[in-house]
Amino acid sequence: MISVKPTNDSPAPVPSEATPIVTTAPSATAAARGEDGTLTIHCQRLQDANHHLLCGWRRLAQQCLEPNAFLAPDFVLPATRHLQPASQPLLVWGETPTGRIVGLGVFEAVAGSPRLPLPHLRSWQTIHTFLDGFLVAEDGAETFFEGFWEFVSQSEWHGVELLRCPANGRMASALFNSAERLGVATHSGRTWERAMLRPREGGPETLTASTSVRRARSLRRSWRLLQRHGTPHVEFCRDPATIAQSAATLLFLEDLGWKHRAGTSLAADPRQKEFFEDLVSRFAESNQIVFSELRIDDRTIASVVNLVSGGAAFAFKLGWDPQFERACPGYQLKAQTVVEGPAHLADLDFIDSCASPGSFIEHVWPERRTLCAPLFLASRRSRAARHLVDAARTLRDLWRGADRDGTT
Hints:
Blueprint: E1 21-26, H1 28-32, E2 38-45, H2 51-63, H3 73-82, E3 90-95, E4 101-110, E5 120-123, E6 135-136, H4 141-153, E7 159-161, E8 165-166, H5 170-181, E9 185-187, E10 191-197, H6 204-210, H7 213-227, E11 232-237, H8 240-254, H9 258-262, H10 270-285, E12 289-296, E13 299-309, E14 312-320, H11 329-344, E15 350-352, E16 367-372, E17 375-377, H12 380-405
Parallel strand pairs: 5-7, 14-15
Antiparallel strand pairs: 1-2, 2-3, 3-4, 4-5, 4-6, 7-17, 8-16, 9-17, 10-15, 10-16, 11-12, 12-13, 13-14
Helix pairs in contact: 3-10, 4-5, 6-11, 8-10
Organism: Maioricimonas rarisocia
Pfam families: Acetyltransf_6
Protein name: BioF2-like acetyltransferase domain-containing protein
């Protein structure tokens, strides 16, 4: 069993100064390997992060068990700087005696939520966040999660709420198994699926197998429409010298269609535009970005920016030219990504579409990943409060049913 000893007797829900909340957790796993069995759990506002933490965080993001571009510092830092979030991110991380960071989560401290009306940690979100959870090292997941749950159980937070967490995979398995071992109850919440692609398993045959006869016919017909204007083809842009131009092209394309009319395009808001440009610049510095572009001759008519983390990419934003709407350029780009994947994207284990359930991408990308919104209850009070929430919702549903039946 991991023992955790907070350095202060009554930790505040949010750290009020640069000194981190620190807990020390001896790791049975590390000790069994004959290593120093001490892991330190830190909790600190992002604004107080030092150079050592940022460098270790960046290394972890590129070598973690479950890739997640939305937990990488190159996403969180520009989001905090430009999007003016309602709350500043709170970092919780585990560090070995040698200074290596083996696990990290990005949270906000909330006084309560509809799911848990008690103070708890909730995954920090922006309007551009499509995945949360934790970054954990492959050889440190068990150690980190044991220390993390001990830390939460001895803090003033009564639980942890995630909103877009992978439901399966090695990170999720380590997370849920550690919670069960340490007696942290889990309320599963809702689950849903979204499309993903394994580029190495793509090719023309994969597209044919995953597309209905009717949609395959539609793709061929719309491709012929594009051919009336020139030679359509797909390019995958990674060259740092051209990334800025690719980013400008995507901003232009996204601002041409319905998002421009709705005022929700990135270019419509100076803060959103600055966030995007900052994010692209940061990911490009480490060659962790790929633009997929559908072109007719030299003209780009559709573009997707893919943020790379570890061995995976995340299809972050899509823009296309409404002049070619009848030819479905966005749909064609996604389909051609399947076809060209083995030749141009074989270094990626998978691409997460980041799309909503029911998206058109599901018709051409054959695989799915499951997400969930778990709530972890780390105290007796939180478990009791959750029972009350469930009871109240049951009574509400019964009342609404009786009202519809006319029996009230």
